[in-house]
Automatic annotation (TrEMBL):
Coiled coil: none annotated. The keyword Transcription applies. Keywords: DNA-binding, Transcription, Transcription regulation. InterPro entries: LysR_HTH_N, LysR_subst-bd, WH-like_DNA-bd_sf, WH_DNA-bd_sf. Belongs to the LysR transcriptional regulatory family. Residues 3-60 form the HTH lysR-type domain. This is LysR family transcriptional regulator. It comes from Acidovorax bellezanensis.
Length: 292
């Protein structure tokens, strides 16, 4: 095999343009140079690619089949070149990203789609879990970085950066006695079971003497929908329309719930690459677009 990628390009361009002269014009070469290159390719392959008894560059049956192979080889060569350029620019070949399952679905989906467009040669591993689980993924070096809701302090092993906030609210199932109140007071909350997010070394405030816990915001929302109590939830999770019963947000001015903080987390000493830096900046923008 002595054929070259340049010969394959001239072969494909000639087939696409329909004539040797048009291919030569597009390449800025003499027609004789294109004809010679393709003749050498045919000699090396031992096949006629074009029927020269016709006026235009008409492919032979063998030429039509090999055209498909030539296109694929050129695609692979371009992919190799792009991957090499990406690596030489300092991009990572691989990135493992852990994402809190409770983050806004629309923002996460937009981020993943845009990563594919902006870094087509990046080999991405996406891990999902609770806020605690994604921290463990980084600690276990299964993920290089995580984006999650802040749940207390972190160990000195990690570095972090705040990247945004997500609104939260007080929710009860549709038809619950609390939903009939125009304005809910703390004394009203103590009468019903509170569903609280459970995380190690994090003690959420209990406003009711009756408490159930779960390590997942989605599990809490499902329990609320099953009439098991009320809960403080991210608005994006509570307003999901897939629960058995709709969740209704309660007006409770005395709680004055702050927005949930979102951070990016990684192990000390790891230097975020260009894709990681772009992910941080872009997800920060996407979180700002979420209605308060």
């Amino acid at each position: 095999m002595q054929w070259t990628l340049d010969q394959l390009r001239q072969f494909v361009l000639t087939a696409d343009s329909g004539s040797f002269s048009e291919a030569a014009r597009r390449l800025g070469k003499a027609q004789s140079a294109v004809s010679t290159a393709i003749a050498l390719l045919e000699a090396d392959l031992g096949l006629a690619l074009f029927d020269r008894s016709r006026r235009n560059a008409q492919l032979t049956d063998a030429g039509a089949l090999l055209l498909l192979e030539a296109r694929e080889l050129l695609r692979q060569a371009q992919s190799l070149d792009q991957r090499a350029q990406s690596l030489s620019a300092g991009d990572e070949a691989k990135l493992s990203l852990a994402l809190d399952e409770a983050l806004p679905y629309t923002a996460v989906n937009a981020l993943i789609r845009e990563i594919a467009q902006r870094f087509p040669n990046l080999e991405l591993t996406r891990l999902n879990g609770t806020a605690t689980e994604v921290t463990d993924y980084v600690d276990q070096e299964r993920a290089q970085m995580a984006i999650h809701f802040v749940r207390g302090t972190i160990s000195a092993r990690f570095d972090q950066r705040h990247i945004g906030t997500v609104p939260q609210g007080l929710f009860a199932p549709s038809g619950h006695p609390l939903t009939r109140l125009h304005s809910v007071q703390r004394k009203d909350l103590v009468q019903y079971r509170q569903l609280i997010l459970h995380a190690e070394e994090v003690h959420e405030t209990a406003y009711s003497p009756q408490v159930w816990r779960s390590d997942s915001f989605y599990s809490l929302a499902e329990m609320v929908a099953d009439d098991l109590g009320w809960a403080i939830l991210p608005v994006n999770i509570a307003t999901d329309d897939t629960y058995r019963k709709p969740l209704q947000q309660l007006d409770c001015p005395s709680l004055a719930l702050p927005q949930l903080s979102v951070r990016m987390l990684w192990c000390q000493g790891w230097q975020p690459s260009r894709p990681a830096g772009w992910i941080e900046a872009r997800f920060t923008e996407l979180l700002r677009q979420i209605p308060a």
